[in-house]
Amino acid sequence: MPRETLGEFEHQVMLAILQLGGEAYSVSIVEELEERTGREVAQAAVFIVLRRLEEKRLLTSRLDETAAEDTGRVRRYFRLTPNALRRLRDSRDTYMRLWDGIEATLEKA
Amino acid sequence: MTGGIPTGDELRRLPLAARLLLRLTLNGGDYRAVSNDLLELYQRRLHRQGAPAAKAWLRRQVTTYPGRLIMEQVRKLLPLSGTRRVVQSPVTRRATLMNNLLRDLRHGIRSLARSPVFTATIILTVGLGIGATTAIFSAVNAVLIQPLPYANAGDLVRIYTESPPHRWPFSVADYRALKEQQTQFVTIAGYTNETLTLSRGETVERIRGKFVTWDYFSLLGITPLYGRLFDSSDGKPESEPTVVVSHAFWNRYIGGSEEALGQSIQLDGVNYTVVGVLPRTVGPFEQGRDFFAAVEWQPPPRRGPFSIIVIARVRPEVDRSVAAEELRAINRHIFPVWQDSYQDQGASWGMMDLKEVVVGDVGTTEMLVLGAVAFLLLIASNNAANLLLARTTQRTRELAVRAALGASPSRLMQYTLSESALLAAGSAAFGLIVMYGGMKLLTTTGSNFIPRTQEIGVDGLVLVFLAAVTLFSGLLFGLIPSLTGARIRVEQALRASGRSATDSAAPRRMRRVLVASQFAIAAPLLIGAALLITSLARLQRVDPGFDTHNMLVAGVQLPRLAYPEAEDTYSFWSQAIERVAALPGVESVALGDAMPPTRVTMINNFNLEDDPTPPGQTEPATPWVGVTPGYFATLGIGLLEGRTFNDLDGVEGPPTVVVDQDWADRFFPNESAVGKRFVSGGCTSCPLTTVVGVVGNVKYVGLDDPGGGTVYWPMGLGPKRFMHFLMRTRPDPMSLVPSLRNAIRELDPALPLVPLTTIDESMSNSLQAPRYLTGLAAAFAIVALILSVVGVYGVMSHHVQQHTKDIGIRMALGGAPSRVLGGVVWQGLRLAVVGVVIGVAAAFYLTRFMSSMLFGVGSTDVMTFTTVAAIMLGVAFIACLLPARRAATVDPVSTLREE
Questions:
Q1: Ramachandran category for residue B896: left, alpha or beta (phi over 0 → left; psi -120 to 50 → alpha)
Q2: To probe the interface with B, which of A30, A47, A61 has the most B CB atoms within 10 Å?
Q3: A7 touches B: beta carbon within 8 Å
Q4: Which positions in chain B touch A47 (Cβ < 8 Å)?
Q5: B43 three-class SS
């Protein structure tokens, strides 16, 4: 099956969703990314990537109205599809293999 | 978190600009979601980092939105984006791109060739727009953008006597004083425009040139093609007369070779030695002039007359205001010296850029015409977009099949875009032809109205303009249909039987927007043209003040050498007037130094005895026409009060004048002007001039002259060397031309051919420029109207065609044909109404820029605006009626049977 390439930021957003477990919605994803990368993240970028990942069928979302009572708004929670999980695993394996044996070299440099 | 929960109302707490930006870039649902996210994040940040940091963060976040959304759209469309299904190496990718492109172009050519009418319509209309716009731009470039073709042209100025509202030339006295006393200019030079008689053996001819001071050429930085230009030894009374000739003169009269230098030519009986030849291309001040004779003016006995045009080069380091102040100071300084012969305290000296002198009010006209052709191009491109959109709609199935076979949206877009690119290229090619034709027209017929036409040509800037205009119009008509075509829904398109899939809301709405905007752009064009037409019609109806039919006019110039003294000229004029009066067919004849409706040689200032001009203010000035006693009777100008001239006026007794009614009303509104006296021309030592009669108004400074009054003075037959013979004839005036020429030749065979014209002809010539402009504007407007009407017709026809089934069903269910008809007409007319309303509003703002070109009609003339709007809507109504009638005659049975 032909595969689409996965962008770096797409990768990061997917990992953030995994980290947040069931609590991944737009705002929490932004904060998670900022916390973990130590950089300011453009909310626009997250918004766009979430939409793109959904189009690529790497995400599913559900509306949660229970939060509406105290927050005044309906939140959209995101979850990775099995396909996405497989892609992340694949990419992690690839990177692990590529990293194998060069950590020491990098430390020295 | 304290109170950090955003509610709907709290969205308003986002800055207005931020909300606006988001609102514009996001659709409703997304807008709400994004704003909520941003607010929530903002509240948290506010809590953590304080207001200034949080606000800065919010600003950064919001401003990044439009750019990112656009990038995302582009990413989706571009073939190189991450959404590609197959990863290729850059080399194969480029090769595929090239292949695709070539294939698309080949395919595009084939498919365009299959619909020649469609292709020709777009290429011709858009090409016409591109070509016309570029041609006009080339004129704007030559006149307004390019510096004058002189060395360091930015430092060149013209110096004049400022006596608002007039700007006079200088007198010899002024010129000499300025030349001696100035310190802020590199050089000052002067010239007078002259028409002299060139005698070559038997033949004599009138040619145009200039008397120039020796430093004229060096000031402008002109270099000769052959020979030399003048130095300080030229033009002195004791030195041999020298002349520099134009390239055309050199070719035509003196052999066109270098040997011509040193030859002698006879101008007005004086022999001049040709010392130099100008290059073929010259600046606007030399254009159309054949000779430049060196002159040095000798100290005059009095300050006037004022005929020298002064040009100067400001020292580059000198501030203009300093130079201007010096001019005023010198003028103040010399004023007392000439007080007894000239007195106009309000007059001062001023200067203006030489380029401004050349551009004059042509600049405004040119920019307006450029605006008009740009509008035309916009309509043509708009029309092309509409046609292409319709074509895309019709080709939905083909595009859907391509999409189904794996063509990505970007490939489809590339495919349709390549067709647009071909059309744009074709339009540009046709535009080049139109541009050359237009430039030819501008340099030939246009040279009567436009300065610097010699310099109109294709340079880098014109080519860049052409490319930019083509790109702009190509993007306009290419991108809109391509974007719509790329967003095709395959399943729906392949399934649909009647209506096509792209006939969904978006392209339909786009076509309507295009049609409405065509009307919106056409309206100002049509209104502008209508205003010009009204203005021209009013000009043509202006009463010139006398009977213009059967009037023949001949201008006769006597050379100084053959007629040195007043008695020589007197003897010629008196004999000539007798002979001409005796010609069969001539009812009466008179002489005048002016000719209605546009030729007046003198404008004079005066100071009324009863109502003197206060010190420091400018004296009034009006046209001053020298006439013989028979002038009023010959032209048929009615006497209203007092008397006209007799043979003694101007010969003995105090000076007398006859004034026209405008003059009398202007200066003596409540009493009779007859018997009133004034000081003429600032000559305080001269006897007072008396008004002896009032006659009807005649136009001398153009038919559009509001009429500030005219003064007639009895010039007698004395020292004047140039006169108009004005003849009232019984038969057709032109039939008298041979006998008139003979009569003059018998008196003096050495006189050149007399330029002859009829008053009717010069009346018509005086309207040449407005007629030219009006014709141009009307042509643009008609093309604009046709394109708009074709646009609305096309959309409505398509609408009816697509909805035949619906209409059939409605009729089968008992719908009245009249309601169907009304419905369709209203659908189309609505677009026209919206467009016309917007266009009329725009015209209301835009036409003010043309108010200086209008005569007798305001730039926001309600009548014109409503008439044009009504015509546009009327034509649109008819255009909608045709498809509507087709809809109303739909036979429900046959329509439904087809299913």
A1: alpha
A2: A47
A3: yes
A4: 30, 33-34, 37
A5: helix
In this prediction, residue B339 carries a pLDDT of: 58
Q: What are B705's two structure tokens?
A: 């002259």
Residue A17 confidence (pLDDT) above 90:
yes
Q: Are strands B270-277 and B156-163 parallel, antiparallel or unpaired?
A: unpaired
ipTM value of the model?
Answer: 0.86
Does residue B409 come out as left (phi exceeding 0), alpha (psi in the -120 to 50 range) or beta?
A: alpha
Q: Give chain B's mean pLDDT.
A: 83
**Euclidean distance between CA atoms B98 and B92, whole angstroms:** 10
Q: Provide the residue type at B10 as one letter.
A: E
3-state SS, residue B644 = coil
The HSE-up count of residue B19 (CA atoms within 13 Å, CB side) is: 11
Rounded Cα–Cα distance for residues B658 and B649 (Å): 11
Sorted by sequence, the CB contacts under 8 Å of residue B325 that are 6+ apart come out as none
User: What Cα–Cα distance (Å) separates residue B496 from each residue in B215, B263, B397, B485, B493?
Assistant: 83, 88, 9, 16, 5
Residue with tokens 């060069």: A102
> Strand, coil or helix: what is B629?
coil
Mutate which of A34, A73, A87 to disrupt the B interface (most B C-beta within 10 Å)? Answer: A73
Which of B5, B34, B40 lies at the smallest CB-CB distance from A47? B34
Measured torsion, CA atoms of residues B695, B697, B701, B704, in degrees rounded to the nearest 10: 170
Rounded Cα distance between B230 and B244, Å, is 8
Of B5, B65, B82, nearest to A44 by CB-CB distance is B65
- The answer to whether B68 contacts chain A (CB < 8 Å) is yes
- As a whole number of angstroms, the distance between CA B500 and CA B163 comes to 73
- Residue B36's closest chain A neighbor by CA? A73
- Return the biggest CA–CA distance within chain A: 55
**E strands within B538-668?**
551-557, 586-592, 603-608, 621-627, 639-642, 656-660
A70 interaction partners in chain B (CB closer than 8 Å): 5
Contact A43 B37 (CB under 8 A): yes
> Reduced to 3 DSSP states, what percent helix, strand and coil does chain B have, rounded to the nearest 5?
55, 15, 30
Least CA distance to A44: which residue of chain B? B65
String of DSSP letters for B711-738 = EEEE-TTSS-SEEEEEEEESS-GGGGHH
Per-residue model confidence as pLDDT tens digits over A50-109: 988 988 889 988 887 776 666 667 788 899 999 999 989 988 888 888 888 787 777 665
Residue B679 confidence (pLDDT) above 80 = yes
Contact B762, B215 (CB under 8 A): no
pTM reported for the whole predicted model:
0.68
Asked if A47 is an interface residue toward chain B (Cβ–Cβ < 8 A), one would say yes
Q: Measure CB to CB from residue B68 to each of A26, A31, A45 and give the nearest one.
A: A45
pLDDT at B236: 86
DSSP secondary structure code for residue A38 in this structure: -
Q: What is the structure's pLDDT at A5?
A: 67
Q: Which residue's entry shows tokens 């716009």?
A: B133
**Quick one: CA dihedral B392, B393, B395, B400, positive or negative?**
positive
Asked if residue B799 lies in contact with residue B886, where contact means CB atoms within 8 angstroms, the answer is no
Task: Name A79's bridge partners.
Answer: A60
Please enumerate in sequence order all residues whose Cβ is within 8 A of that of B486, keeping only pairs 6 or more positions apart, or say none.
B77, B409, B410, B412, B413, B416
Q: What distance in Å separates the CA atoms of residue B758 and residue B672, rounded to the nearest whole number?
A: 35
Share of chain B above pLDDT 90, in %: 17
Phi and psi torsions of B5, nearest 5°: -100, 115
The predicted pLDDT at position B505 comes to 64
B274 pLDDT band, cuts 50/70/90, is: very high
